[in-house]
UniProtKB/TrEMBL annotation:
Organism (species): Streptomyces meridianus
Full protein name: Helix-turn-helix domain-containing protein
Domain Helix-turn-helix: 13-61
Top-level division of the source organism's lineage: Bacteria
Entry-linked NCBIfam families: excise (TIGR01764)
Classification via InterPro entries: DNA-bd_dom_put_sf, HTH_17, SinI_DNA-bd
Length: 69
């Protein structure tokens, strides 16, 4: 296990619908992010599960600040 990683039994996974709700986007947008490699996910049968921390990391990295003159 790499430094800073939590054991899998401590990782919270979200469904695509839950991720869409948190991000306030459509499920299709979440699928595009997963298939595009921008949001890591694991496949469980025909469904995807996204680590909760990955959602928080994605949102933090995507934040666009407004500069004032």
């Amino acid at each position: 296990m790499a430094t800073g990683e939590r054991p899998l039994n401590e990782v919270a996974f979200l469904t695509v619908a839950e991720v869409a709700t948190v991000m306030r986007v459509s499920k299709m947008t979440v699928y595009r992010l997963v298939h595009g490699g921008q949001l890591p996910a694991i496949r469980v049968g025909r469904s995807f599960r996204v680590p909760e921390q990955a959602v928080h990391d994605y949102l933090r990295e995507s934040y666009v600040g407004v500069e004032t003159a």
